[in-house]
TrEMBL record:
The lineage of its organism: Bacteria, Pseudomonadati, Pseudomonadota, Gammaproteobacteria, Enterobacterales. It comes from the Bacteria. This is ABC transporter. The chain crosses the membrane at residues 39-61, 73-95, 101-122, 157-184, 204-227. Residues 35-225 form the ABC transmembrane type-1 domain. InterPro entries: MetI-like, MetI-like_sf. It comes from Enterobacter cloacae.
Amino acid sequence: MLIVLALGVPLIVLCRWIWLGGVQNWMSADLWHSLRQTLMLGVGGALLTTACVIPIAWLGIRYPHRIFRMLEGCIYITSSLPGIVTALALVTVTIHYARPIYQTEITLFLAYLLMFMPRALINLRAGIAQAPVELENVARSLGSTPAKALWSVTMRLAAPGAAAGAALVFLGVSNELTATLLLSPLGTRTLSTGFWALTSEIDYVAAAPYAMLMILISLPLTAILYMQSKKIAGL
């Protein structure tokens, strides 16, 4: 009953606003521009974050030293901070010490990296843990370099975990608001910032398509994550 209320009531209200807006609401150029930018930032943030956590996850599993545990702890602590804190910290640092990258995609992706690394790290760590180190050793004994053995053996086995982590990062980036508002270049408009701007003007009819698109781009990834969790659980 609670699930029905939690999901049904917002969807009913959202569909009502969409019905009131009619087809012309979906003809807005800003809406589709926001969708394109959301997808670009989401995919870019997911790929960057997943790539950055590969060495951290691998070292944490293969060489469980105190230094790597401390590094992981710092990642979790940083991501636990509110997005507004991370964004303001990056604003301060870039204004005083790295002015050329202030309000650029570089700073924005750095914020996404700091905020969403644990989502990719936890899943990738679990995937690498399931890949026996003996397979890497065999690949090296057959002439593969350590990097090639990691990529061709371990990462292939850990690919489902990496994909799950990337999907979670994509979902987080697609719905992120505060850091995107503060750090994005001028003219950037995502679905979340567009929805926020229109609801701030009490224009719920115009904001409804933005909310619906956020739901629609989240559904496929959510379904994939759900099916993968059932597969892992053996259900």
